[in-house]
Amino acid sequence: ASGGEGEEDDEDGGATKSARDVAYESSLATHPGPLAAEACAFLSHLIVRAINRPARDSTTAAKFLDATVEEYLQILEAQPDGGTGAKAQLRRLLSSSEPSDSTERCWNWKSRSLDVEGTLRRRGRRYNGYPVSDRYYGSFSFDGLALAMHCFYCTGGLNECIHRVVNYCGDADTTGAIAGQMAGAFYGMGGLDGTWRERLERWDRGGQIEARAILLFVAGEERAQTEAEAEPNTTKVKKHTRKVVKREGWSKARAAQ
């Protein structure tokens, strides 16, 4: 069962659920385990919710994440297998309530600081069948997701979030990418420091990042139209798929790339 299965009624006609399903299946192409797939499904859900916030929404990152997590916990609870396997593990992570002696205490993303050192020490030499190393902390999908959530939750801006996550070191390119997607979708292009934006534009002189986002949007529009034409009886539902990325949300979509 994919991370998006469930009977919840998405306000966007199922677009967010579709994003979760695609993210789940995409993850399986490179990571055979269901844990990474569940993490990707949640991350895609968060990104879609962030991109589609009202233009003048003043909600803080912490309140947004609290609400999104609560919503997702309800989605997991409604699924037949929501209390077992990978979904149960994801519920543990999202709950941010691990005991102080847990080998997963680093999943307490709401804490003002993460006990990474204590976690690694508690895990010993091997964890989940793999060697434990501070150099690669965050490479395990749930560790990386929890760290990114922590940095997004405990900071007040895009740049601050990225600075915080990469300075935890470990698998910083991975954790930075996860946190960057969260913060980019939430704060948008306008949240980037001017120097960072200048360097990004200098590096991407041809505008390929923006072009890629536009092409993805157009592809989604065409797919939604094709599905609506193929299933005329479900047009009312299918036409909302295009809402995954709104036209007025382009600045957020661009920063989330």
From TrEMBL:
Its cofactor is Mg(2+). Mg(2+) binds at residues 171, 173-174. Binds 2 magnesium ions per subunit. GO terms for molecular function: metal ion binding. InterPro entries: ADP-ribosylglycohydrolase, Ribosyl_crysJ1, Ribosyl_crysJ1_sf. Keywords: Magnesium, Metal-binding. Residues 225-257 are annotated as: Disordered. Coiled coil: none annotated. Residues 236-245 have a biased composition (Basic residues). Gene3D superfamilies: ADP-ribosylation/Crystallin J1. PANTHER family: ADP-RIBOSYLGLYCOHYDROLASE, ADP-RIBOSYLGLYCOHYDROLASE-RELATED. This is ADP-ribosyl-[dinitrogen reductase] hydrolase.
